[in-house]
Write a structure and sequence with these properties.
Blueprint lengths: L7 E5 L3 H13 L3 E5 L2 H10 L4 E5 L1 E2 L2 E2 L1 H10 L4 E6 L5 H8 L4 E4 L4 H34 L12 E4 L2 E4 L4 E4 L2 E2 L4 H12 L7 H8 L6 H19 L9 E4 L3 E4 L2
Parallel strand pairs: 1-2, 1-3, 3-6, 6-7
Antiparallel strand pairs: 4-5, 8-9, 9-10, 10-11, 12-13
Helix pairs in contact: 2-3, 6-7, 6-8, 7-8
Length: 256
């Protein structure tokens, strides 16, 4: 039986043999599993019920499996999403960041790797839900205090040299000019400015700023295009960056 009881799983995979293998392995492990060969029925299932975890093929026939990921993320921030892909390229992983997808597996995944990944990702999401619930209770308790008894909130704004960041509004200004940043770019920049003057590794940025679990090599490949776009939006001369600095074998740092 699984170490994560009473978990409901969604599988979207167009290959009938692989879909059945996944379903058999996970049902034997004690999970409740619904599997689909096409995006349309999977979307209907997502609208009808909540899932603890989804295993999604990137390419379901001629359809895009990411459409199911988007629907799942709109429904709940606590559904773990694992992408199944037969390709080793990183384009899918880059797209996954904005949907807060925690893991992707190359097909065919080994049974032990599949069971371990599913159990770990469900446990992580349940821990996150519990943590968020506790944080909500703590906020309610703080709001019930008299104003003079309330602790000071954590900073929601950062200023470093010409850069101003507002976390609540996800707003960034450089020399008073509002920057048009994606959510990913904003949180990467926030993570770097928080550690002003100190290198932050690509892996740390993926984990802390993006909540994405990859290898060191994959992290560098994922972060690099986002940093390149940030430099074009911030640096006076992106080819000679003054602020977003690459530190050899250490990562990146923000310099005011």
């Amino acid at each position: 039986m699984s170490d994560v009881p009473s978990a409901s799983l969604l599988i979207v995979e167009d290959d009938p043999d692989h879909r059945q293998i996944l379903k058999d392995i996970l049902e034997t492990a004690g999970y409740r599993v619904k599997s689909f060969a096409a995006v349309g029925p999977a979307l209907a299932a997502v609208r009808a019920e909540a899932f603890d975890l989804a295993l999604l093929d990137l390419y379901v026939g001629a359809e895009d499996g990411m459409a199911v990921a988007e629907a799942l993320r709109l429904r709940s921030p606590y559904t773990a999403i694992v992408i199944l892909t037969g390709q080793g390229g990183l384009e899918s992983a880059v797209r996954s960041i904005d949907l807060q997808i925690q893991k992707y597996l190359l097909k065919p995944a080994r049974p032990d790797e599949l069971r371990r990944t599913v159990a770990e990702q469900i446990a992580l999401m349940r821990a996150k839900r519990q943590s968020d619930r506790l944080a909500g209770h703590m906020r309610a308790a703080v709001e019930a205090l008299a104003p003079e008894d309330r602790p000071q909130p954590a900073p929601a704004q950062l200023t470093s040299g010409p850069l101003d960041l507002n976390l609540g509004q996800q707003l960034a200004r450089y020399d008073g000019r509002e920057l048009e940043l994606t959510t990913t770019e904003f949180y990467l920049l926030w993570g770097l400015v928080q550690s002003e003057g100190r290198p932050v590794s690509a892996y740390q940025l993926c984990r802390a700023a993006l909540d994405y679990d990859v290898s060191d090599y994959e992290a560098r490949s994922l972060i690099k295009p986002h940093l390149s776009r940030l430099r074009k939006k911030i640096e006076p001369d992106p080819r000679r960056p003054r602020h977003l600095i690459t530190v050899r074998r250490q990562g990146y740092l923000w310099r005011p």
